[in-house]
C-alpha cells in the first residue's frame, strides 16, 4: 500500500513525533539530547520552521512545529538523519535508529494548539511527577515558565497569546487535571521496573529472581516479557536494562525485545501472558498515550 501524502501546505501547524526502531532508546545520555537540541537550532535556521514546544524522552521525541513553507518533510528528515548519523558513529552501530518515517498530526485550531502543547509538556509523566514537570530539563515547559533561559529556536509567545496565558495560568493549565486526562492516560505515576517484574512474577507464577537469570538453551519467556514491558513503559533505558539483566550490551537488550515481539506473533501462550500482565498494569497505573490532536488512543507508546 502506498504511503498517504502529508498535509504540508504553507502556514500550517504540526505535532511531530518519532520513536526508536523496536522501541529502542534514541537518547542514551544527556550529551545525545544536547546534540539533538543543537540540530533543532540548525534545522530551524536552515529550513525556516519554528519550534513552539518540544519534549525529548528516552525512545521518542515530540515537537510542536509551525511551518511557514512546505518544508516540513525536508526539515524533519534532515533533523533525524543528522541525529541518527551522530548516534551511530558515537555508539559504533549501523542500521535504522528510528522506526520509520516521522509521524505528524495537523493542528487546526487555537484550542488544539494549546492542548497539544499541554500534552507535549506532560509527556514526562511517564517518568516523573506533576510537581517535577517544570524541572524536567529536556522539554520546553521550564522555558515557558522562565525557569530556564529561552534558546533562540524556541517560540513561547504564540501559545501564551492565543489564550492570554500568564506564567502562572499556563502552569496551572498544564499541571491541573482535565476530564480528558483519563482518556488520554495522563494521570498515573510512572511504572517502575519493580512494579512490572512483580506483576509478571505473580501472573506467570515464577520468582522475581528468575527474571534476572538466564541459562543457555533454556527458554525464559517471563524474562523476555519483563524486558519488553519495561522498554515499552520507558521504566528504564537500554543501558539500565543491560545492567539489570546481566546483558553485555544495549544491542543485546534490543535483540531480546525483538525476540519477545516475534513470540507475541507466534506463541499464543506468550501472547496471553503479555495480555494478562498489561491488563493488570493498566489497572494499577496506565501509560502516557494518545495525541489530543487526533483523539486516538495509544498503549505503552508515543
Description of the molecule:
There is one protein chain. The longest helix has 19 residues, at 72-90. 46% of the residues lie in helices and 9% in strands. It is globular, with a radius of gyration of 20 Å. 39% of the residues are buried. The chain contains twelve helices and four strands, in the order βαββαβαααααααααα. It starts with 11 loop residues before the first strand and ends in an 18-residue tail after the last helix. It has two domains: 12-184, Transposase IS200-like (Alpha-Beta Plaits, 2-Layer Sandwich); 193-286, Chromosomal Replication Initiator Protein Dnaa, Chain: A (Orthogonal Bundle). By secondary structure, the protein is of the alpha+beta class. The chain has helices spanning 30-47, 72-90, 110-122, 141-144, 157-162, 167-175, 181-184, 193-204, 221-232, 238-244, 250-266, 268-284; strands at residues 12-19, 50-56, 60-67, 103-107.
Which labels suit this protein?
302 residues, alpha+beta, Alpha-Beta Plaits, Chromosomal Replication Initiator Protein Dnaa, Chain: A, four-stranded antiparallel sheet, 4 strands, globular, disordered N terminus, disordered C terminus
Q: Distance between the terminal alpha carbons, to the nearest Å?
A: 24 Å
Main sheet summary: 4 strands, antiparallel
Give the spatial strand order of the biggest sheet.
2-3-1-4
Radius of gyration: 20 Å
